[in-house]
Amino acid sequence: LRTAPGVDIITHGVQATNVVVRGFNNIFSGSLHALTDHRLAGVPSLRVNLLHFIPSNNEDIDRMEVVLGPGSALYGPNTANGVVHLITKSPLETEGTTLSVGVGERSVFQGSLRSSVRVGEDLGFKVSGEYARGREWPHVDATEAAARADADARPDRCVADKELRGLSTEEAQRACSRIGRRNHDMRRYGFELRGDWRFSDEGVFRATYGRTDGSGIEQTGLGAGQTENWIYQFVQGRLSYQRWFAQAYFNTSDAGDSFLLRDGLQLVDESTLGVWQVQNGFSMAAGRQDFTYGWDFFATRPDSRGTIYGDYEGDDAVNEWGVYLQSKTALTPKVDLVAVGRIDSHSILPDNVFSPRLALVVKPNERHAVRFSYNR
Length: 376
What we know:
Layout: E1 7-11, E2 17-21, E3 33-36, E4 39-40, E5 61-68, H1 72-75, E6 82-88, E7 96-104, E8 108-118, E9 123-135, H2 142-153, H3 155-164, H4 169-178, E10 185-200, E11 203-220, E12 223-241, E13 244-254, E14 259-260, E15 272-284, E16 289-301, E17 318-332, E18 335-346, E19 353-365, E20 368-375
Parallel strand pairs: 3-6
Antiparallel strand pairs: 1-2, 3-4, 5-6, 7-8, 8-9, 9-10, 10-11, 11-12, 12-13, 12-14, 13-15, 15-16, 16-17, 17-18, 18-19, 19-20
Helix pairs in contact: 2-3, 3-4
């Protein structure tokens, strides 16, 4: 992925990275539309792409697809800059077991496993997982250090300030004791279970469950956060038959005992994301004209007990739905005209949003293409 054109990766820890495309990077890489097996890979509601929270390991990745530029017409909201799609191996196509163990500096130890088995010709199961630990590089944040010194010099004032923010005396004392107290030990484990059933020559049903439990130091726009047993889980079902594709999945997040290091305040995130999607397509005129159409629904349910969403905590449920139609016309054997239109509705925004895409694609040969495109 690091060698792909237009992809920018920031490494800011033993395990943590931010990946974006088209250069629009910051410490919270929410501008990237990250997918794993057609599922949004970001943390629910926060939409931050903590790619090391993805339960799949390197041995299980089949390929990565990168789309540069606006992709909202097909992929939906929050796709202004581009898409990175990680696609894992099917147990129907790759059998066997792979074990990997690595050690290195910073007390790093990493072990991963992928095992896949087929039961007959049409049913396959796989399990993949990874365990990693290490010690982050030491760093002194000047703001953290100043806040720690102030809390030590005036503990009563620190507690009183936290009580004014709605904390009990015990909670305020605990927050003050955690300011600037970095735990440099990083630990993460994750696993994924998946079963694939080929119910016909042109149809496959896939069911997947994944879970990651991570602890370490994560960078945020409000300074570093100490994550303690942050749990990310998902369950997903996918159905493919001919050109029909339908899926439903549910992502959950539980921030555990995580807190911000600059003020010691707990980070509570028990948010969920539920998604339902359907897509189909058909061709005409001996394949020279092709249509793809679909429908998406996203139900985001933030829950931070006021620590992230504040006064909006009781009125922040978001429902989004979208419909789209794509036309691909072969003007000549080497020139295609692609036109896409999508309409999205957001439960909080007053108006629907229209996302068009128009592209002329010239393919002088199989290995080269020149695109002239317009997106919004």
